[in-house]
Write a structure and sequence with these properties.
The complex is a heterodimer of chains A (294) and B (285).
Chain A: H1 3-10, H2 15-20, H3 23-43, H4 55-59, H5 63-95, H6 102-114, H7 119-130, H8 135-142, H9 159-181, H10 185-193, H11 198-227, H12 230-235, H13 243-252, H14 259-288
Chain B: H1 4-41, H2 52-58, H3 60-66, H4 68-101, H5 107-115, H6 122-140, H7 148-169, H8 172-181, H9 186-197, H10 199-214, H11 218-222, H12 228-238, H13 240-264, H14 273-284
Helix pairs in contact in B: 1-13, 2-13, 3-4, 4-7, 4-10, 4-12, 7-10, 7-14, 8-9, 12-13
The chains are: A mainly alpha (294), B mainly alpha (285).
Chain lengths: 294, 285
């Protein structure tokens, strides 16, 4: 892919001078993006004493790694699905409001901030809410409803899912709102004129138009949760239930020989998953944007 | 169509009810942790209401004395934000303009490279950047601020889309040819013709870069450097109240900025980076 445009550029009028202008950019990207990517890709195939090996990839079959991958996939899939459904509902609800109204500005601004409010601060906010001495725990305990002591918050399949939803729902609103707003009122009117019910309109008109955007949003949410590290790292201090935490673990622990290359193999595994899902997202988004031209 | 109006009114009412129910439920979920944080930061050791934490937070000398980590992290993050924006602009604006004018064949390659970080999570980047940063530390020393090199990579996709949209909106070729034929040098064309016309795009790219830099934790933490997020994390173990208060304050601040921008600049400011990715892609078709 890289050499074809370059050759075409060489066919231009003053090739050497023109190409010189893009050298700094390519040099920078090579050092800080291409080399790191190659380090991961190549490192995944290098053994502890150097030389080509597949043992790092085989190490991906270890129970600890497969469990972490499984947890990551389940966590990402569940929060993506729940976040997509709730976010889409919210987007629809907001889109029925007045176009330039305060409600819409308020919700979009709030979601714009919350979608990026991951990490340490988010983990602490949930600790302040649900931990043993948290606000909601105290309220619920005084009402006699809760006796768990808030320990569930640290578990990847309960607490983390709830915490991840906190940035998944806003992200879905942001990516899905343009699609819902692309629904033209004329389409509904046309359905009604032809005698169709609201249900028919949703089933035959709106749903097929929104479906690519919805699935696109779902995939984006999946990669968003799958790549997230900071929130989980700040909340879960023991064990590495997720793939990013497992990678971070091989990075910070006292290096057992060859273990860092297993980390690279895991990183490669992650890139492959994210790349596949992102590619599907780009393809779907291209389809979806056909209806978004306004 | 005699019943049309009544039907329409009933439909409107149903929509209104749905809207308020959904919005209320979701906002309840959004606000509970924030209210809990506020509750947590306004209590003293014996559980009584106290504004101690917040007065401390506003008292800069006390902060810098009692929480040196927080001060160092904050200063480092501000420096990182400035340097990241600087490198990003110096790298992207001239290159993208130049590609448009003189090497259009490289457009796809540049776009591909700029969007590539979307498929490389920060945690993976950390793994790959280790040997690169060994060299950076060797040549430049181990200061936190050099993390900006990696942050530029994280910002690349969002900044590319923002600047690309800006370039699309102006006729770069005509503008630069006019300036060139009047005797301007390339640097002059860049600084006095192209850049002023890209003001909005440059501003939104910079805003995204600042937001991303201030919220970055993964790379800094794993490379054992202290930025704002890492400082908050460390502080969470010893003095959680201050830490939560800083998080809450930065959230409210970011919200106020976005909310104000949504009134001033139409929709633009209120749109988060990923939405901008999609919206601009639409413009390219």
């Amino acid at each position: 892919m890289a050499d074809r445009p370059a050759r075409r550029a060489l066919g231009g009028r003053r090739p050497s001078g023109a190409l010189l202008g893009v050298v700094p950019f390519f040099a920078y990207v090579a050092v800080f993006l291409i080399i790191p990517t190659l380090v991961v890709v190549i490192g995944a195939f290098v053994g502890g004493k150097g030389g080509f090996t597949l043992s790092n990839l085989r190490a991906l079959g270890q129970p600890a790694v497969t469990t972490a991958l499984w947890h990551s996939v389940v966590l990402s899939a569940v929060t993506a699905l729940a976040g997509a459904v709730i976010g889409a509902l919210l987007a629809y609800a907001v889109s029925t409001g007045r176009p330039g109204g305060v409600l819409k500005k308020f919700i979009t601004s709030l979601c714009g901030v919350l979608a990026q409010f991951g990490g340490v601060a988010l983990a602490f906010a949930f600790l302040a809410t649900f931990s043993a001495t948290g606000y909601l725990t105290k309220v619920l305990t005084s009402a006699g409803l809760d006796s768990s002591g808030g320990l569930w918050l640290y578990e990847w399949d309960k607490g983390l899912m709830l915490v991840y939803l906190y940035f998944q729902i806003p992200l879905m609103l942001i990516v899905f709102l343009p699609a819902v707003e692309g629904l033209k009122p004329q389409w509904r009117e046309a359905t009604e004129t032809l005698g169709g019910s609201t249900f028919l309109y949703w089933r035959k008109v709106a749903a097929p138009i929104l479906m690519p955007s919805f699935i696109g949003g779902l995939l984006l949410l999946f990669t968003n949760a799958f790549s997230a590290y900071a929130t989980a790292a700040a909340l879960v201090s023991q064990g590495s239930p997720l793939l990013p935490l497992e990678i971070g673990g091989t990075f910070t622990s006292e290096v057992i020989l060859g273990q860092e290359n297993v980390g690279k193999a895991m990183a490669l595994e992650m890139v492959v998953v994210v790349a596949v899902v992102m590619t599907a997202y780009v393809i779907l988004d291209r389809r979806a944007s056909r209806w978004l031209v306004r | 169509m005699s019943g049309g109006r009544g039907q329409r009114a009933a439909f409107r009412r149903r929509q209104d009810v749905l809207r308020w129910v959904v919005v209320t439920v979701v906002l309840l979920f959004f606000f509970t942790p924030l209210v809990a944080s506020l509750d947590f930061t306004t209590r003293d050791a014996s559980g009584n209401r106290s504004l101690q934490t917040w007065t401390t937070l506003l008292n800069f000398p006390a902060i810098s004395q009692r929480y040196p980590d927080l001060q160092a992290g904050f200063l480092a993050s501000v420096g990182l934000a400035v340097l990241t924006v600087g490198i990003m602009l110096v790298l992207l604006v001239p290159t993208m303009t130049w590609v448009r004018l003189r090497v259009p064949g490289a457009t796809r390659t540049v776009e591909f490279l700029c969007l590539l970080p979307l498929t490389v999570p920060a945690i993976v980047l950390v793994v790959g950047l280790t040997p690169v940063y060994a060299w950076v530390t060797y040549f430049l020393g181990g200061a936190t601020i050099w993390l900006a090199f990696a942050y530029v990579v994280l910002v690349l996709p969002y900044a590319y889309r923002a600047i690309d949209a800006g370039l699309r909106a102006i006729d770069v070729r005509t503008l630069s040819e006019a300036a060139r034929s009047l005797g301007a040098s390339w640097p002059t064309v860049m600084a006095r013709v192209i850049l002023p016309n890209l003001r909005t795009a440059v501003l939104s790219a910079s805003f995204l870069a600042v937001a991303l830099t201030l919220g970055e934790f993964t790379i800094a933490n794993l490379f054992s450097r202290t930025n704002l997020q890492v400082a908050m994390f460390l502080l969470g173990k010893s003095d959680a109240q201050i830490s939560v208060a800083v998080g809450l304050a930065s959230l409210v601040f970011a919200f106020l900025v976005l909310f104000a921008m949504s009134f001033v600049g139409g929709q633009r400011g209120a749109v988060a980076p990923l939405a901008r990715l999609r919206r601009n892609r639409k413009e390219t078709r």
